[in-house]
Amino acid sequence: MALQSEYINEAFFFMYGRQCHQLFHIIDRNQIRHVAKEISVITNRLALIGHKYKFSSHIIQTLLKAIYATQPNPNCLTPAHSHFLQACIDAQMYNFATNVINNTIILEIDIINTNLSSLDYLKYFYYSGICYIGTGNMSEALDYFNQVITTPSSAISEIVVCALKKARLLSLILTGRLYEVPKLASSITTKFSKADMPLYDNIGKLYMNNDVVGLNLLLEENSDALHIDQNYGLAKQVIASINRNNLRKLTNTYITMSLNDINDRCVHPNNNSNDVNYSKNLLIEMISKNEISANIDEVTGLVKFGINKEEDNHKFLALLEQNMMETVSLSDKLRSMQKNILASPQYVSKNVAKVGGMGMDWEDDMHKAI
Fold it and tell me: How far, in Å, CA of 91 to CA of 103, rounded?
């Protein structure tokens, strides 16, 4: 089937897809390591053909089946993971993809039994970031791009470059600050980020100067380059985030401000600084989304910031206490399990055999564990 995939066209795509689905349903997981390379070829070709003929939505379940069939254990990364996410992005099924990502905890990389390459590893985290952007979860997306950026390397790959570009824009949207490459990143990645992205450097400089006009002009002049990078939409969100981040800064600086003062600090898209309703509507939107904590007094025209901070602190402390109790409970369960194991006849008999008659040493181990 791996050889057959090289010659599949649009007419035979669905037939081939059904054959692959059946293959992943009946394949013996214990024998998968002997054909790991061929399985990787099949899932890769499925994703590429689905993209070519715009049939990605029809192969997502098959690729998901391939993941479960080829994983040595539920926490192992396989090439099918990145192929599955690629198909989800093509089909714009971001929520479905993030549900799978949320239920996947990668704890193991098995190169031999899964034929996983460094490219598959990088693509998984990069595609995960794109899926979270599609759902509007920018914070989670930035975490996944940072995973790509901090992967040890001796050369710059195109995936790392793409992740750096998106991370720069996401940092402006989320925090209003220029992106800083994590300290864990390779030196070559850090050097590249400082030297070879002038367009994104200019976006950052204009953003920090609150120059909306200059940003709009820069984006339009470089729209082709941004579309090639698939970052035009993100760049537009950078402009929209200027006032939101400015308002967040005000909540950390002032307790009370008038709507007129807030309006003066906003950058108005139509250069109409007399439009107080713009800043007021933005405040109402951010309050409704819990982005800031504030209350607007319609009579006096005053805005009070941080009115719910004390309530938020109580909620945080309650959540912290609950998590601590769960941790203590889990620790007690682990300790109890360890006691049962150390006292079990099977454990005792095995240790007696190992020490050749010095069978009481296990008691010391048990007391140390207790």
Answer: 20
Beta bridge partners of 296: 303
Identify the pLDDT of residue 244. 82
- Where do we find the tokens 């989800």? 88
Q: Whose CA is closest to 100, among 122, 80, 70?
A: 80
Summarised one tens digit per residue, pLDDT across range 234-248 is: 999 998 888 888 888
Helix or strand (DSSP H, E) at 294:
strand 294-297
Environment class of 16 (CB within 10 Å of its CB; exposed 0-12, middle 13-18, buried 19+): buried
Contacts (Cβ under 8 Å, ≥6 apart) of 137: 98
DSSP H helices in 136-197: 138-149, 158-175, 187-195
Q: Which amino acid is at 69?
A: A
Q: pTM surpassing 0.70? A: yes
Q: Specify whether the CB–CB gap between 304 and 283 falls below 8 A.
A: no
Residue 147 phi/psi, 5-degree rounding, is: -65, -40
d(CA 278, CA 207): 20
pLDDT along the chain (370 residues), means of 10: 52 68 72 76 83 83 87 87 93 94 86 82 95 94 95 89 94 91 89 84 91 89 93 91 82 80 72 65 79 78 69 70 86 84 77 56 45
Name the burial class of residue 160, with classes exposed (0-12), middle (13-18) and buried (19+) by CB atoms within 10 angstroms of its CB: buried
Structure letter (DSSP) for residue 130? H
CA distances from 182 to 23, 152, 162, 175, 369 (A): 42, 12, 16, 15, 38
CB 306 within 8 Å of CB 293: yes
CB-CB contact of 204 with 215 (8 Å): no
So what's the pLDDT on residue 220? 92
Cα dist from 358 to 349, 350, 364, whole Å:
11, 12, 12
What is the model's pLDDT at position 368?
47
Task: Tell me the β-bridge partners of 305.
Answer: 294
Task: Provide the 3-class DSSP secondary structure of residue 257.
Answer: strand
